[in-house]
Amino acid sequence: MNSFQSVFRSDLFQGQTIVVTGGGSGIGRCTAHELASLGADLALVGRKIEKLETVKAEIAQTCGVKVSIHSCDIREEEKVTATVAEILAEHGKIDHLINNAGGQFPSPLSSINAKGWETVVRNNLTGGFLMAREVFNQYMVKNLGKTDMSITNIIADMWNGMPGMGHSGAARAGMLNFSETASLEWAPVRVNAVAPGFIASSGMDTYPEPMKQTIMQLDKTIPLQRLGLEAEVSGVLAFLCSPAASFISGSCIRVDGAAPNARRIWPVGTGKQNPVFNSFHLGGVPEVIQRRDAERAGKK
Ligand SMILES: CCCCC/C=C/C(=O)SCCNC(=O)CCNC(=O)[C@H](O)C(C)(C)COP(=O)(O)OP(=O)(O)OC[C@H]1O[C@@H](n2cnc3c(N)ncnc32)[C@H](O)[C@@H]1OP(=O)(O)O
Ligand SMILES: NC(=O)C1=CN([C@@H]2O[C@H](COP(=O)(O)OP(=O)(O)OC[C@H]3O[C@@H](n4cnc5c(N)ncnc54)[C@H](OP(=O)(O)O)[C@@H]3O)[C@@H](O)[C@H]2O)C=CC1
């Protein structure tokens, strides 16, 4: 049932076609619901067609938009080429691509063999590149300047490294640089990245238990002290497709509750629970400010 309540106006994407890879679950599914609720026709891509059929049926219950579904492993070059052609045959256009499909198997670096490394790099770097290249070559390059078009690549907030995710982190770093280069070569198509942090979605179920327990020490890991919501990622994706983002390209938007800002040395939170915060407000800083104010007053 599509009861999605977007903050954007309901006809924002009327007449536009948006491709969402990995649209059958989690963030991709939520994004499909949000974009459909804003009038977009959708092409949903994923490996398991049943998952895509379910999302299509959910959307059909409340939205009259056109939704096509396409079984495709984004790592297979020929399949990607054929899938983009299939989407264009059905919709006639692609205004925006949301490269969301991805994932990995958590493993320490020392246990990853070449096949496993390549599997994950293909899933999180090569696949996104192939999708973007085909959408650009088959449609966008022929329509430059006619309308605002964009490509958004979902990466992951793994700055400074993340144990168990070395293969995926390397691929996501590559995807960020790919986005930056594509924003140069493919302008005026806007190409951006979105880096979710810890989001309460189906993807989280794939993390090993100790990793989940570490993440869930929310007072230490995430300054906003909660997991993100799928809708908090899909809202940013909708924004990047919208005219409100028409001068944003080559950027990466983090959606992570400030997690990377929570360096180990700084306790997070405010008020009595945070000794560093207290040390400012009960000690030095107000005295300094009082002295400064007194000096200023004396000069008047
Ligand atoms: C702050 C942000 C941090 C969070 C960042 C990330 C969050 C998320 O990504 S959430 C989304 C999570 N969802 C997933 O990760 C699920 C998606 N994963 C998969 O679909 C698969 O694991 C896959 C696509 C990555 C691989 O599937 P497949 O292509 O079917 O590959 P195989 O199973 O055939 O394996 C190929 C090859 O890879 C190695 N390998 C696979 N699994 C493992 C494992 N558990 N441990 C070690 N190595 C593994 C291995 O070399 C396999 O070859 P064989 O040995 O010949 O089987
Ligand atoms: N949840 C989180 O905390 C975070 C998630 N991310 C990233 O956000 C994206 C969405 O994650 P989330 O919704 O949580 O996880 P999910 O596992 O629910 O979604 C991933 C989707 O990608 C599809 N997919 C995976 N590999 C391929 C492939 N080779 N070809 C086509 N489709 C594929 C899957 O469908 P199917 O199996 O049918 O192919 C699935 O629907 C992923 O890229 C993920 O890595 C990043 C940071 C944090």
UniProtKB/TrEMBL annotation:
Entry keyword set: Fatty acid biosynthesis, Fatty acid metabolism, Lipid biosynthesis, Lipid metabolism, NADP, Oxidoreductase, Peroxisome, Phosphoprotein
Catalytic reaction annotation: (2E)-decenoyl-CoA + NADPH + H(+) = decanoyl-CoA + NADP(+); (2E)-tetradecenoyl-CoA + NADPH + H(+) = tetradecanoyl-CoA + NADP(+); a (2E)-enoyl-CoA + NADPH + H(+) = a 2,3-saturated acyl-CoA + NADP(+); (2E)-octenoyl-CoA + NADPH + H(+) = octanoyl-CoA + NADP(+)
Alphabetized InterPro entries for the sequence: NAD(P)-bd_dom_sf (IPR036291), Peroxisomal_t2-enoyl-CoA_red (IPR052388), SDR_fam (IPR002347)
Subcellular localization, as worded in the UniProt entry: Peroxisome
E.C. numbers: 1.3.1.38
Main location as per UniProt: other
Keyword Lipid biosynthesis: yes
Subunit-structure text: Interacts with PEX5, probably required to target it into peroxisomes.
Described purpose of this protein according to its UniProt entry: Participates in chain elongation of fatty acids. Catalyzes the reduction of trans-2-enoyl-CoAs of varying chain lengths from 6:1 to 16:1, having maximum activity with 10:1 CoA. Has no 2,4-dienoyl-CoA reductase activity.
UniProt name for this protein: Peroxisomal trans-2-enoyl-CoA reductase
Taxonomic lineage of the native organism: Bacteria, Pseudomonadati, Pseudomonadota, Betaproteobacteria, Burkholderiales
